[in-house]
Amino acid sequence: TEKCDEVLATPLPYSAFSASSVVSSDYGAGYAKLNRRGGAGGWVPLNSDRYQWLQIDLKARKQITAIATQGRYSSSDWTKQYRFLYSDTGSNWRAYCQDGNIWTFAANRNSDRSVRHDLQYSIVARFLRFIPMDWSEEGRIGLRVEVYGCSYWSDVISFDGQGVISYRFRAKKMKILKDLISLKFKTTKGDGVLLHGEGQQGDYLTLELKRAKLLLQINLGNEKVPVDACGSLLDDDHWHSVVIERYRRNVNFTLDQHTQSFRTNGEFDHLDLDYEISFGGIVSSSKPSSAGGDHFVGCMEEIFYNGNNITNLVRRKKTDTSSFRNLTFSCAESRTFPVFFNATSFLLLTGRTDFDTMSVSLMFRTWNPNGLLLFTPLLYGGVEVSLTEGKVTVHIYVTQKQNTRVDISSGSGLNDGQWHSVHLLALESFAMLTINGDETSSVRATIPIQIHTGGSYYFGGKNKMDQLPGFRSFQGCMQLIHVDDQLVDLQAVEQGAPGTFENIGLNMCAIIDRCVPNHCEHGGRCSQTWDTFSCACEGTGYTGATCHTPVHEQSCEAYKHLGKTSDMYWIDPDGSGPLEPFKVNCNMTEEKVWTTVANDLLAQSPVGSGEDLEMVTVHLNYSMSSEQLNTITSSAEHCEQHVAYGCRMSRLLNTPEGSPYTWWVGRGNEKHFYWGGSGPGVQKCACGIERNCTDPKYFCNCDADQRQEDSGVLMYKDHLPVSHMVVGDTSRPGSEAKLTVGPLRCQGDRDYWNTASFNTPASYLHFPTFQGETSADISFYFKTSSTYGVFLENLGSSDFIRLELKSPTAVSFSFDVGNGPVELTVRSPTPLNNDKWHKVEAERNIKEAVLQLDRRYREVRLAPPQGHTRLQLYSQLFVGAASGQRGFLGCVRSLKMNGVTLDLEERARVTPGVKPGCSGHCSSYGVHCQNGGKCVEKYNGYSCDCSLTAFDGPFCTEGKSGCMYFDSCYKGLLGPLTTEANLTQEELTFSFSTSNAPSVLVYISSRTQDYLAVVLRHNGKLTIRNMRFYIYCGSVLQLDHYPSISYSLPESSDTEFNLVKTIFLGKVFETGQIDPVIIEKYNTPGFVGCLSRVQFNRVAPLKAALRSGISSTASVQGVLVESNCGASPLTIPPMSAAYDPCGTCCVFLFLFSFTMACCRSHVTSVFSAGVIAVVIFIVLCTLVFLVRHMFRHKGSYHTNEAKGAESADCADAAIIVNDPAFSETIDESKKEWFI
């Protein structure tokens, strides 16, 4: 096609130009031609204000693609900014809009240089207006212009609400696979059918206006038909373009350059239409699918249906137009004269004075819930008509003699952008308010006073001098204003008739629907006022100004590294992409995280029983769409799904050379002929691969026609999940088949750990241009020891987007969408170059820009109220360094842009200076390894080594627990497990739960007389007993939530726990010398209950026994059963009684957590040179020796503090005095110390 860029204004005669005013004839509008010097060199109005305009009549409708301006030749007069209006008729002007606003064009800064603007979209019009908004401070408004475009011609058909165009098909029935329909329309009516076609089978296609919105319905033979709405305010008497493209079930619906795509319901692809398709209404028919609807009133042009020019056929009388009373090929001029109000506008009209009847009516449309519609002063009082929270309220007050006030209100939701009418009639005794012409619902009120009109009527606002605090002007449009039952000639007011106005737009309604197109993403609900819109994101799974930012993590892997434990979680793998978040089961009990998605097929479901069918199809339904399932399998490192086929005379796969009886369908609706335990291309079952089938002649057990089962795991993840099974050998007599398909289980998240290391300042990765015109988000992790560097950059002609590390504590996000560079900077209180992972999240949309660091530090910058909103980029996206910027040294991980993860590792493998992967994850995530677990580095992450702890699980948080019965005991040798046989420090930690006492919990013996015992006394008190702990022994004990207690044993101690030998749990079965109190009072019948998380220094004996079985250095007497009886609710969900082996043997009343630490140091002797010191030392040593041989020192500690501790001489005495249950015998050779 030829370029539409002809000069249109310069060839026009002088008379084609007109203006609001001129200084003199030499400055007339006809001299306002670009680069011309006629007259005084351009147009200059009489006054320099915003009410001036320059108008051009192109003499015919033209297609406009560009405009240019220039100041008055060789002068100080020029225009700095202007707005551009266009019209077909010279009335009902339409403002040129761009990026959701009435656009203000930047113009000239001197008188000679011209400035051209190519329009973002072309327009068709005959009349054009330039409205100066700003001008030279040194002079006046001065203007010369040019318009660029080309000729435009089209047949126009006027519809009067009666006529319908009927286009008959050549065949009686049309089976249509592909449609292309386009037309243009203009109307002042908000309802009407634009086109309709239907068939006998129930198929139909309807395009209809409803409340000034366009609705498209396509039924290809389905019961439920979605209604897709597009646009709004389409009753504005301006041309609107519609294009409908359909191929099979895929539909593109375009209105005024805005396209929305969808798929029709059901499985049918063809649109079956009978006889004809109609335009302008629905032809009366006896077909059952016919629906009523208003006929269209307005004009249409350029009607095309699948290559047929309908408007041309109508002109040539090739279609049925018999329903038209008077078919015309021109569009009647609108008779309305709308007025446009902004926040500072008002219109003052005059009426009758001192009259006893007031009658005022008007039509309005607005988005604002509040605003003044009308104010008129009475001779004694006033009347105010306002919009209050979407309803019309009237306040009539009279101040004559006594103050009287009457309030009336009616309507609701009147700030919906639609035209609404208001009529107020006030007589001597009553007032009546009517909304939208519905007199049956008019509101009446009695007026106990007489009305005396004042003669002045303010519409939309008041004079600034009369405004009170809190006053709100009207923002919107009005038309058909009647005062005293007379239609006001607003065109005459514009030309000087009685009346006054300020800051209003005459003969235009520039209302904008800021929710069309809807910038609220992911189903966010859009609401608006006159100036802006807002999005309600509740319940969408997204947040932010436009509901763009995902609330949920991308995978179970991401939840794990936030420290979460096994549970059901919402995940959003594509982030801000189109897929909705969905719920999965995250199993984090192993080193690898498993994501599990169940289906609705019960285990061993019978297939084909009693059905005389050759093939039976079993459909599997998952709790999410196939697209959502595909995102799991695509990013996973490994996926699997267990399948089992139980059979009796129901063959499965047949031989590898024969046709399979059964197959399954997976991802992409592909058929697969292998079974669990086998692989693609191998028509075998697991037994065929392992060569152990029941009948060696077959490769599946079931193919031998016996009662068997074939089961295994499908592990080729690109084929998963299983969507349905087709079973083909169940119709023979006696055939039985039972099918099991387990949940889809996937492991790992390649996107989360997709990492690249940048090793030189000049190294970078490049990707295709980033597409983020109106909404863009970028997120990634970085790790560096460098102080600065560019993370990524993408450039356009002037637009750009960049993220960089500005300093060791600051990250910046900068961009330009045409309004000038914008930079957001977030600072961290701690250095970011600490070689730990940090997360950066940046987002830019038409409302705001956001930069967030480490989920905590954040900066938000609002977008300007008017300006460019589209980010237009052309270069490649560079990650690491580009365009001479300072390169980044370090690692970048999990780079996502608008929900798409960039494959850094793939590019890094072929790029010099960049390597895939990154080491050093433990520096950031090692904190998640708890209870002494050690963080171990891995290529794509890390793991926690729990081998030297009493805990298991991915974060060493799952304590191993065992259930013990009467006379049960665990015995383990400590010598081989400890680094030292003689200990100077011990730490014993464990949890227990029991309802039986007394009992031995833990007993540690030695090859000497040293021992350590923790026992539960018959009254439920916990006691620590030990022997031969000597000088300077300090101990710390922590029980449950009670405060830690530190204490020292008497100064008659040794320094070591010598020759540690054995640890007993639950009961003591030791040979040799044992404290008789332990045996007599605590050892029988033994501990009954739960022990958990037992750890003595670096040894976890209970865990070792339960995980690895009993070694040669350990033994179990009685029964020790693994249980989760001691598990914390924060780590493992409680096991049900049906599966918990401990739940059937005993009832646990309490769960205690116990920690004890004891340390000792060697005696340091200090000798005095004096004789007295030597004597004292000898005496003390003698006393220590005598005491050591006369007494056995033991200690017991009670968990409940004595209430009389304050009055006792020491802690020991406090316990003895206040413990009436204490009854142990102290013999001649032993003494007990209660600590």
TrEMBL record:
Gene name of this polypeptide: cntnap2b
Q: Which organism is it from?
A: Denticeps clupeoides
**Keyword Acetylation found:** no
What's the protein name?
Answer: Contactin associated protein like 2b
Domain of life, source organism? Eukaryota
* PROSITE patterns given in the database record: EGF_3, FA58C_1, FA58C_2, FA58C_3, FIBRINOGEN_C_2, LAM_G_DOMAIN
Keyword Cytoplasm part of the UniProt annotation: no
Q: Please name every pair of cysteines joined by a disulfide bond in this record.
A: C891-C918
Pfam families for the chain: EGF (PF00008), F5_F8_type_C (PF00754), Laminin_G_2 (PF02210)
| CDD domains attached to this UniProt entry | EGF_CA, FA58C, LamG
* PANTHER family, A to Z: CONTACTIN-ASSOCIATED PROTEIN-LIKE 2, PIKACHURIN-LIKE PROTEIN
Q: What region holds the Laminin G domain?
A: 156-331, 336-509, 754-918
Q: What is the lineage of its organism?
A: Eukaryota, Metazoa, Chordata, Craniata, Vertebrata
Q: Which residues form the signal peptide?
A: none
Domain EGF-like: from-to ranges: 511-548, 919-957
Supply the InterPro entries for this chain.
ConA-like_dom_sf (IPR013320), EGF (IPR000742), FA58C (IPR000421), Fibrinogen-like_C (IPR036056), Fibrinogen_a/b/g_C_dom (IPR002181), Galactose-bd-like_sf (IPR008979), Laminin_G (IPR001791), Neurexin-like (IPR003585)
Per UniProt, residues of the Fibrinogen C-terminal domain are 547-597
Membrane-crossing segments per the record? 1166-1187
- Annotated F5/8 type C domain ranges read 1-150
